[in-house]
Amino acid sequence: MAKAKVAAKPTVKKYSNYINGEWVKPQSGEYFDNVNPADTSDIVGRFPLSNADDVNSAVEAAKNAATRWRRTPAPKRAEILFNLAEILRDNKDEFTTQMTREMGKVTKEAGGDVQEAIDCTYYTAGEGRRLHGFTTPAEMPNKFAMAVRQPVGICGLITPFNFPMAIPSWKLIPALVCGNTVVLKSGEDVPLSSLNLIKACEQAGIPKGVVNLVNGARDAGAALVENHDVRLISFTGSTTTGRVIAERCAHDNKIVSLEMGGKNAIIVMDDADVDNAVEGSLWGAFGTSGQRCTASSRLVVHKKIYKKFCEKLVEKVKKLRVGNGLDPRTDVGPVINQAQMEKILGYIDIGANQDKATLAVGGNRLTKGDYGKGFFIEPTVFTNVKPTMRIAQEEIFGPVTCVIPFSTLDEAIDIVNGVAYGLSSAIYTQDVNQAFYAMQELYTGICYVNSATIGAEVHLPFGGTKGTGNGHREAGTQVLDIFSEWKSLYIDYSGKLQKAQIDEVEI
Ligand code: NAD
Fold first, then answer.
1. Which of 217, 313, 333, 494 is deepest in the core (most CB within 10 A)?
2. With 0-12 CB in 10 A as exposed, 13-18 as middle and 19+ as buried, what is 485?
3. If you write DSSP's letter for every residue of 52-107 in order, what string do you get?
4. Full set of structural domains in the chain with CATH
């Protein structure tokens, strides 16, 4: 009898770190699996679990490349970055599919993420022909005064899972255009997208050592923070991690820029177009399965329209299709990993049983059929939520939102401002006075009128107040203030002048 054919198991690809222009195995000898959150039997690849030796080699490479890159004229650096933008654009579809496979977000959103990296690269490369300083009159005669930007040195970039290519690009490209060399420690749940970005840097012709990639988890990030040659840490991730990093950076007087958690809110006034507000809230809350730092996790709704708003929202939420992000019919993909899934389910339990809010829709993990292979949670809405409840105060970072009633605009503003975070806010109203008043009073880094709390554009500053940040802004030209330092220059040109020429100007 002929033997039945057994389908060969596809071999899982092993990836490397990128150090000093070479793809190298980790000195740790250890690897971790990059798992598809929609189907945990699908291993996207094996990535180095790097240790301090790997990180220190990468920093050494960045150190050796620093002088040459710093002295490369900024327009020349920009030329290479324009090449990079073209490579990213040409590979957008492949990078998008790979991102959905490793991170779970639906392909439309993953495409937006890659596009953000492309936009960032084109836009920021343009700064290579600007990087403006300024001139100003000096106090003394025959003196010239000006200020220029100089690179800070070696930059350590530490990134999270939720924008796998956009966030690394938001740090990498401005760091490079300013003349710094870089070590990127990618997010451990999404290493392939960072690797795609760095591979594109290699193809674009960025000289060896200027860009280095170290894969790994917390220990690799911590080693980067500890390395004395690293002058700057640019971090995006949770507020808890950011605080630890800031403390460690203080020992070395490192420059540290932090983009951290959020608990963003939409105010819906009684004069708002309710359908428009519901639609915005739906995508603000459940886009990227609620795993956006700007997610609309609080909906602060005027009492006069509260019931109508909640009914319409719940009706729409019930129709959302949860599934694998690679399926074009999917609205909401999985959450990133087991730990995050458990944390979200824990918050749902707190909302229902401790806070005693009304669980209006959702609330469960999905396990039937293919759902059982991944980390899927029903889009969840709590109503009758009080602003002080834990689900209304703490960042959940999943497909969960809560609807809070209010009576006056001042009360709504106090609710929005009454959390530890300050990234993004929004107001739906047709009254221009209310809109401007809210824009003035909401203490967040970003504020939207008649659209949800999500959707940043790369030429505007991005970042938050309070527990979200430490005063820096990424994107726009403001990001240049993170990755460069000012140097003031005074030039005395009186030396070779005739005495008469000097007298002429002396008063
Ligand atoms: P996280 O804090 O768990 O991890 C972020 C990165 O830090 C990872 O690369 C991780 O390996 C590294 N890390 C962890 N501990 C470290 C340590 N002690 N030293 C050095 N590095 C360390 O965050 P996450 O779960 O990947 O991302 C979700 C969080 O990111 C949410 O809180 C979200 O709001 C936030 N976020 C903020 C923004 C923003 O711009 N404000 C944008 C996206 C995400």
1. 333
2. middle
3. HHHHHHHHHHHHHHHHHHHHS-HHHHHHHHHHHHHHHHHTHHHHHHHHHHHH---H
4. 17-260+469-488 (3.40.605.10), 265-449 (3.40.309.10)
Residue type (1 letter), 47: F
Catalytic residue flag (residue 259): yes
What length does the chain have?
Answer: 507
| Segments of the chain scoring below 50 in pLDDT | 1-2
The residue whose CA has the least distance to atom 32 of ligand 1 is: 238
The protein residue whose alpha carbon is closest to atom 35 in ligand 1 is 237
Strands 358-361 and 181-185, bridge-based pairing: unpaired
Taking only the tens place, the pLDDT of each residue in 1-10 is 445 565 566 7
Residue with tokens 């669980």: 359
Collect all residues with Cβ–Cβ distance below 8 Å to 386 and sequence separation of at least 6.
355, 357, 392, 404
Q: Rounded to whole angstroms, how far apart are CA atoms 413 and 306?
A: 17
Find out whether 175 and 483 touch, Cβ atoms under 8 Å. yes
Give the span between the Cα atoms of 479 and 456, in whole angstroms: 14
* pTM for the model: 0.96
Question: Using N-to-C axis directions, what is the helix angle for 92-103 and 74-90, rounded to 10°?
Answer: 70
What pLDDT, in 10s, does the model give residues 316-367? 999 999 999 999 999 999 999 999 999 999 999 999 999 999 999 999 999 9
> Is 293 among the residues known to form the active site?
yes
* 354 backbone dihedrals φ, ψ, rounded to 5°: -100, -55
Instruction: Determine which one of 155, 178, 249, 293 is catalytic.
Output: 293
Q: What is the spatial distance between Cα 269 and Cα 276, in angstroms, rounded to a whole number?
A: 12
